[in-house]
Structures are given as structure tokens and as C-alpha cells.
Amino acid sequence: MSAWIPSPLRQLGQRLRGASSNPSELLSWFEDQAHSRGYQLSEGQRRVIDSMAGQIARLLEGGQPRSLYLYGSVGRGKSWLLDGFFQAVPVAAKQRLHFHDFFARLHQGMHRHRLLDDALGATLDELLGDCQVLCFDEFHVHDIGDAMLLTRLFNALFARGIFLLVTSNYAPEGLLPNPLYHERFLPVIRLINSSMEVLEVGGDTDFRSLPANREHQRFTQGHYVWPGNAAQRRALNVPDEHPVVLEVNNRPLRALAIDGRRVVLGFDDLCEKATAVIDYLVLAGQYDEWIIDGLDDLAECSLAAQQRFVNLVDVLYDQDRQVTVIGKRPLEESLGGPLADLMRTRSRLGQLHQAGPESFIA
Question: Are 30 and 161 in contact (CB under 8 A)?
């Protein structure tokens, strides 16, 4: 769930719940919010907001709105636009989910209902109930097993008449780019293009870098420090190591130290071991402040470890946990590797306070 939704947007949502309301108020609200942050809406953002207003109008008229797929580079306000739509759409039966979270729970539910004739349907009944509007943030696909399930999932959601709003860093054609699997993913791409309005969110402003956004996030209050010397650890009040073995989803995971709602975890334990998104979600529910110790050159790690680190940062960013990463080298030298998703990880960790061996830690 997004960390911060301002009260004026909640008021907008209340106004739009009246059948006689004018959905164009959505554009005015976004314009005011952009102005308060010191920039103008891009043409791409305006096109998205105009389409969103049209979908709200169709809902108010009792019609069936066309689902939306928003894509664009990191920091262009896709999640901000999604949050605005979610709060304003005049429907009570709605859910806003991070795609990692939903897909992990989908897999769990289908395993639990595997003996039923329609395990997917039973799982969707559990997860979504009578949901009419479903918003997915950070949609991306890398595993062919997940990709094959997605065709069934999207068909099931559209068959239920659920309106989807999806954000992604990738255009539909850029999903699952691995040439070994891309051909088998084409049915999902065709389904997205035929059943959803695909819109690019562009612009020159990196939305995440704006001070008005940073001050409302716990994630951006954290640090990236290197090389993790004793003085830096004292300045950050890093607890002394007292390893503890946690049980996470019936599997052991070592923590280097625990101090109330703070946890110190080693990079190798989190990413080189067989951990999963659902494990990070469980831990994010238990600990508000994370210290991840021992990041070196990600390019030297296995592709599986690189992907786990990308997923971990995604979860902590979306759950808005305060994060400190203790690396062995500067950030720009730590995040090499071929994964396209690393652009998002670089952007997110780049928002942390940076401190090298000679820098003052605020």
C-alpha cells in the first residue's frame, strides 16, 4: 500500500462519489498537487488523467470502463497517478496491491486449493471477493511459470468484469524479454493490448527526487553507507551482532541482530539463499527499520541473487520501511548487472542519504 495519501485527495474521492459530480475535477486536483511540488504535469500525465476521468464517468453512469495499463521510466509518477485514481474512484469494492504481494498470495492460494477443479477461481474468491476495481503497482514478469499463469489470471479477471489499472516500467511488448520465453508470453501481451488502454507516462521530471515526496516517506530517511567502518556503524547506531535464526514461512533465515522493530540482515542471507518475495513481505510486517549489511558488487552475484535483491528493494519501498544498506563500495559501483529491473533499484536506493568513509552521516 502506498505510504501517504493526502487528505485533499480523500476529499476529492468523497466529492466524486456523488452521481452528479464532474470527473474532470480529477485533473484539477492533480494540477494543484503538481504545482505545489514545483512542476507542471507532462503531456503524458495529462493524457492518463484524462483517460482516468473518462473511466470514472463510465462507472458513475453504470457502464463498463476500459482497463488501463500505464508504463514509463522510473520516477515519472506512475504510482502517484495510480494512488490518485484509487482514492477518487467512487467504488467501495476496490483493492490497491503491489503485484509482488498479490502474485505471492496467488501462488499460495492455488497450492492450498490444488485439489479443486478450479483452484484459480477459488483463490481469486478468497483474495478479491466482490472486487470491482483492482490496481496493480509495479507489474513485471521474469519467470516463465509465472508468465503462463498470467494468461489464465488476466482472462479470469476480465471474465469477472473487474476493472484493472496496472503500472509497469515496461511497455507490454517489453515484458519477459528473455528470447527463450518471450514467444510463449505473446498471448498475455495480445490480451493486454486488446483488453486495456495502454498509455505511456512520460516527462522530464523525476518525481521521486522532489523534496515534497521525500519528506513523507520513511524509506528515503535511510542511508547507503560504504565501506561500513566502525565509525559509520556507531553513527548509525547499528546493533552489535547477535545472530538469531528466524522462522519465516516455515524456513530458517538468519538475522545478524534484532533490536525491537529494527533488524540487521546480511545480504548473503537475504539474497544468496533461497528466499522469496513472500518472505520479505512477512519480515516487512514485523520490522519497521532494516539494516542490510554486506552488499558488494551485485554484478558478481548470481542472476537469482540479483533478482532477489531487486525484489527485496521493491517490497521495502512499497511497504515504506526505513532502509539502511551497508555496502563495501560506492552505490554506483555496487549495482552492476544485466537485469533491466536494476534501473528501478538504482533509482530507489539513490534516494537514500549517501555517505562514504569521509562523509558525515546525518
Answer: no
At residue 97's C-alpha, the angle toward residues 94 and 102, to 5°, is 115
**DSSP 3-state of 95:** strand
Residue 145 is which amino acid?
A: G
- Span 287-306, pLDDT tens digits: 999 999 999 999 999 999 99
Residue 212 lies in a domain: no
Q: How many CB atoms lie within 10 A of CB 188?
A: 22
- What are the counts of helices (DSSP H) followed by strands (DSSP E) for the chain? 15, 13
User: Does residue 307 sit in the same domain as residue 350?
Assistant: yes
Boundaries of domain holding 257: 217-355
Least Cα distance to 316 among 269, 267, 358, 282 occurs for: 282
Q: Which residue has the higher pLDDT, 6 or 265?
A: 265
Which is nearest to 260 in space by CA: 282, 287, 280?
287
Enter the pTM of the model: 0.74
| pLDDT of 5 over the 50 cut | no
Q: Which of 34-45 are b and which e, b meaning 16 or more Cβ less than 10 Å from the residue's Cβ?
A: beeeebebbebb
